[in-house]
Design goal:
The protein is built from eleven helices and twelve strands. By secondary structure, the chain is an alpha/beta fold. The longest helix is centred in the last third of the chain and has 16 residues. The chain is globular. The chain starts with a strand and ends in a 5-residue tail after the last helix. It is an enzyme of class 1 (oxidoreductase).
Amino acid sequence: MGYLLGVIGNPIKHTLSPWIHQQFMNETSINGIYRPYEIKEDELKESFNLFKKMNIDGFNVTIPYKETMLHYVDDLDERARSIGAVNTVVNQGGKWIGYNTDGRGYIRSLKQSYADLDTFVKNVLLIGAGGAARGIYDALNQESFPVVDIANRTRERAEGLLDSKENHVETSIYSLKEAQQNLQQYDLIIQTTSMGMTPNNRMMPIDLQNIKENTIVSDIIYNPIETSLLQTARKKGARIHYGHGMLLHQAALAFELWTGKTIDPNHILHELEQKLKGGSTC
């Protein structure tokens, strides 16, 4: 019998994650099934118990359950515990362990696009403080960036990210308006909220009026592939980074946790782009 895998979230009906992991299984000659499970919040406990009875090998966790899943797993990987969010659950001999591959997947994707990242980027602005932002903030702390500031609608939620702050990193917390006024000081701006996602394509969390030329503007939204934020950044001379690369790299890291197989996901990047442009979502 092959691997039993899946992804939980709400909504999730049009996910491409099964397609991504099927490509991984084909490449590694692994038999398995990866299914989407759209679950309401009041169904989480019952669904988790069902997964245990099915003895599935693991599953991904997406919006809005990355932080909620902390209360359901038996144990947490050190980084997931520090981050305070889970996007991958692994069945290790009947014990359910929570991991977070979002941040590492994001950094891999970013470095793939910008080889000069370590020399060019000193000051980073992270927009948002949700589950994905937690993973990315933690991963940024593992790099050599001296300043990683956070901008969010509510200060209290942003302060929750500081649990994974490293001593060599300086972090200030700003309102979105404050950050907007000082964009010229950042070399890398990372947008992690759902603002600008289809069907609300025209929305932007901040105005880019004060951005400096050649700043890297990154948006983890991948539907649409080029958000209004990225379109505006491009017009202002910024360099841009798309969100579907993170999607692919975090999936590869999750696949490795479940199967022990290391995989380079870049060979399906173009095909994923074509599927997203065709109107599908992940």
